[in-house]
Amino acid sequence: MKKSVIFFFFLVTTICLSAQSPNIHTPSQIIQIIEDSPVTYSLKSGHFSPADFSQKVLRTAFYRVQNDSAYEVKRFEPEGKAKELFDNAEKLFSDRDFSGARKAYQEALSVDPKLYIAITYIGETYLYEKDYTSAVLWFEQAIEANYIDYLAHWGLAHACIYTGDPKRALKEITITKILDRNNQNINKMLNDIYKLNKVNYVDWYLAPLFSISSEYDEEKEKDIVNIQYDENWLAYALVYAVWKYEPDYAESMGNSQFLREKEAIFCTYVSYSKKQLKNSPALRMFEVAANGGALDPYIIYDGFLPYDPTIALYLEKKDIESIADYVINIRSKIKK
User: How far apart are CA 282 and CA 263, in angstroms?
Assistant: First the structure.
């Protein structure tokens, strides 16, 4: 028989209704959709290794240009004379000739005004010389020219520690983290700055453990949707399976990945027992974020960016700052 599984969902009513869109379905509704479906689903519990996000990092400096209403993100790739000057600046920097490197970076920038990373590196020359006031000014220019340069935000956070502005350092290091979510090299300074500001930060992840696939069953002469799941992530897996394989379901929900994630997390949250929630900071954060009006930043920072950090490169400045506010003021309430 298709779709045979027995499980019980703990329904709660305390969560803010703002956590749901009118279209979001409850776990029991998802189960009913599966039971009534022409699609054959096969469910099987299994063991999954913890997700590893260590290789999902950007590190490379990017810039973006706006085309109509959309951004185009590009890598810095100096060419010709600008490349010659930039490479020379890099050599001088590595030789710790910071004054000479500054001059070469400025010359490269004069040849290629879109080589915004040179502005950031000029700021770094001042940082290494411990001229923190000048460093702040150059990092500010770099951010103004190219807001998505995580190195400029990192440098500004560093400089602000020494210019006596820990609050600004806190915001800038948080933006740095948003712009390269899984870059562990950011974490030491981030943790230091958070401790300096007496704000909590734990780098936990919302990492559902499941897999879904489809294969043709020759005996039954039909396609079978196979759902394999860790016992804590059954509800999440069911939602994803319905979105992917249920005829017309995704279309009826507007094909919104955002809505799919909200539905999957909501159904998982209400399926958890108190013991399961106690052991899951990511799911406890769902309720706190919903009640704090920060569900969208939560989904972006904890749901999307770990899997695809490039998403941050296309976000508006106001949205990145909203996510930073979530991380500092709301996410900090949940400890591991």
Answer: 15
